[in-house]
Amino acid sequence: MVHARGSQITINLANRRLSHYEGNRLSKVYPVGVGKPATPTPTGSYTVISKIVQPGGMLGTRWMGLSIPIGNYGIHGTNNPPSIGGYVSNGCIRMYNQDVEELFPSVTIGMPVEIIAGTGEGKPVNVPAGVPGGGIIHTVQPGESLWGIARKYGKDLGLIAQVNKIADPNVIFPGQKIIIP
């Protein structure tokens, strides 16, 4: 099965959250446990390469293997629920068993998984009238896309484009300041 167009998972290591997107829509955010300082979770863009029901033991009730080339890493359940929310693993991404069971059917082989450090989120700013809650400024880095930026902050791509008067979301450039509402 091929993943739905635009569907992906983003894992923010700083806030220890896994965000599942269906198309450009944020579907759900889950708390996770990630790699401890001695064995950090590798950042980068990967894909899901395997899925196992009932892998057992410390892997909990589900395993989704990732294409990280430097080891055997995955998103999985846990037999240690209090570890969720911490820097605790050997690099894998741990989820509560009920959460990984909820996410598992929506994940397909080949689905993109972006793991980000999540640092430097920007500083609070005022946004144009009519946009609730204020916002922050993000400085575009080389290689970033507006879609990736929207996923990073868990925000709607259309709203970001509208607030910043971006006619073509494919055209942004390094150094550009983007308001994240």
Textual characterization of the structure:
By secondary structure, this protein is mainly β. It contains 3 helices and 13 strands, in the order E-E-E-E-E-E-E-E-E-H-E-E-E-H-H-E. The strands form 3 sheets. An 8-stranded mixed sheet has the order 3-2-1-10-5-6-7-9, covered by helices on one side. It has a 3-stranded antiparallel sheet with strand order 11-12-13, covered by helices on one side. Strands 4-8 form a two-stranded parallel ribbon. A hairpin with a 4-residue loop joins strand 1 and strand 2 (17-22). It is elongated, with a radius of gyration of 17 Å.
- How many H/I helices? 3
CATH architecture call of the largest domain: Beta Barrel
Residue windows where pLDDT falls under 50 for at least 5 positions: 120-133
What is the count of distinct domains?
2
Radius of gyration, Cα only, in angstroms? 17 Å
Could you say which structural class the secondary elements and strand pairing correspond to? Answer: mainly beta
CATH topology of the largest domain: L,D-transpeptidase catalytic domain-like
Oligomer: single chain
**Shape assignment:** elongated
Largest beta sheet, briefly? 8 strands, mixed
- Order of strands across the biggest sheet? 3-2-1-10-5-6-7-9
- In round numbers, the mean pLDDT is 84
Helicity, as a percent range? 10-25%
Intertermini distance = 35 Å
List SSEs in N-to-C order: EEEEEEEEEHEEEHHE
Could you give me the name of the CATH homologous superfamily of the largest domain?
L,D-transpeptidase catalytic domain-like
The overall strand count is 13
Give the DSSP E fraction (strand runs of 2 or more residues): 25-35%
Q: In CATH's first tier, which class of the largest domain applies?
A: Mainly Beta
